[in-house]
Structures are given as C-alpha cells and as structure tokens.
Amino acid sequence: MFKGTYTAIVTPFKDGKIDEPSLERVVRAQIKGGVDGIVPVGTTGESPTVSFEEHIMLIEKCVEFAAEKIRVIAGTGGNSTDEAVYLTKAAEHAGADGSLQVAPYYNKPTQEGLFQHFRAIAKTTKLPLLLYSIPGRCGIEIAIETVERLTKECPNIVGIKEAGGNADRVSQLRNSLGPKFDILSGDDSLTLPFMAVGADGVISVASNVIPKEVSQMVRAFSQGNLKGAQKLHAKYFPLFRALFVETNPVPVKAALAMLGTIQELYRLPLVPMHKKNRDLLEQTMRECGILQS
C-alpha cells in the first residue's frame, strides 16, 4: 500500500505562525519531484510545538495542496492515546490517505501498553496506519512480537517506519509479517541497505531538499537497477549525513532556507544551527551540486 518515497515535510513559519504560501511551495516541489507522498506534522514537521488547531490545519492544507496527486500520510501519533485518537480522527475527516503513529515517548509503556495504545487508535479509524519505531527518540522499541499481535487484530495496521538503524530488524519484520506488510526506512543513509533486505522504500528527510533524486534512487533499486541506485546513494550520502549533524529538523530547514524555499525559523526549544555545522552543510550542498557556487 505504502511503497516508494514519502517525504517527512517541514513546517514553515513566518511571524510566529504557519507560513501557508511556503507550505504550498514545499508540497508542490514534492509533487514536481515525483515522490509518492508526504508526511506532514511528524518529527520533521515540529509536531511537538504546534497546537492541536495548527496540527489539524497543517493536515488539511497538505491534503488540499496535494490535490490527490500524491498521498498524504498524516503524523498523528503521540504519547497520549486520547490525543492520538483525536488527531487521527481529524486526519481522516480531512481526507488524509493514512496515518503515521509514533511509539509513545517519555512515558515508556511496556509492550502490552504499546499494544493497547496502537489497538485503541486503530479501532477508531478506517485509515491505514503505519507504526513508527524510533527508540533513539522514544526510549522504547516496538517489538516484532507486538507488531505481529497488532497486525493480526487490526487489519488497518499495514506497515512500519523503521528508524532503529538495524537491518536485522528489517529482515526479522519481513520474515515475520510477510510480503504485504510495508516496511519503510526512517533513515536516508540506510534506505538502500534496508531495501536490500526487504524494505519497500523510505520516509525521507533529505527528499525535502532533493525529492527527485531520492525518488529516483528508490525507484531504481525497486526496478532492479542496483548500480543506478548505488550511484545516487554514493553521490548524496554526504548530504544524508550532513542533514543530521544537528537535531532534525534544524539542518533540513536551514538547507531549504539556503535554497530560498522557506524562512529559517524554528520554535523553541529548537534554535538555529551552530555556524561550524551550518558551514559544513552549505559546503556539502555545494559539493553535491545542490547549491551553486
């Protein structure tokens, strides 16, 4: 269902508010770049610092701007089950094509708690759901056994964004859940390694900046053009790394600002990049041919 390249898009700000014209520009660039879909209001979209009203508005606007040309997988997870249910229902009402459900962070539930949390959300919506396992941010991993339990009980849980950095888990997920279950890499630099052992694509940060190139890389591998995919990976690997030299989404918003797509504005506690890291990012973009000298 969800295979290919999906961009975890940034949330542009202006004068302390959502910058709708820049958001539309971001979405249109993704359409032009040939991605399969976008993921608004995830970590890259600074979901922790937008209000409920802004969160829902962002989803509505992305659905409007996407105009059914690409899919919209709304980030509607949270560490409160009631909150996640509320946002997921709103995303369904807005016309989203699916929902990304991050593992509850900070409160560190048990695997049984994770099971109950995701099941409760799935039971309240008809949207297809992607789980999101990112232990580096959440402090917990969604165990493979928990994913198996959930897919058996909840037919609308159709896949997972895997951001634990472990290719073995991709193999284990594929072996346990079969070919129909969607597995998407959560790390740009690991997209090809993960696809080599069974993943179906990526939810990408880098495709905010290079949507065409990331889409081509994923498509090339899917079509059996390994050399073509490897060539693109090698060319843009320095960018994949540079975009995480500081906490996401600070570098990717800085990169988009360098390209003139958005203003480089964040909400606290996120702050602009350190000059040394900004210089590294700018140099990398020039070396990759993204910024002209």
Can you walk me through this structure?
By secondary structure, the protein is α/β, with parallel strands linked by helices. It has a single domain, classed as TIM Barrel, CATH 3.20.20.70. Helices cover 47% and strands 14% of the residues. The chain has twelve helices and ten strands.
Task: Please specify the SSE layout and strand pairing.
Elements: E1 4-8, E2 13-14, E3 17-18, H1 20-33, E4 37-39, H2 52-66, E5 71-75, H3 81-94, E6 98-102, H4 111-122, E7 129-133, H5 135-138, H6 144-153, E8 157-162, H7 167-177, E9 182-185, H8 191-196, E10 201-204, H9 211-222, H10 226-242, H11 250-258, H12 275-287
Parallel strand pairs: 1-4, 1-10, 4-5, 5-6, 6-7, 7-8, 8-9, 9-10
Antiparallel strand pairs: 2-3
Helix pairs in contact: 1-2, 1-9, 2-3, 3-4, 4-6, 6-7, 9-10, 11-12
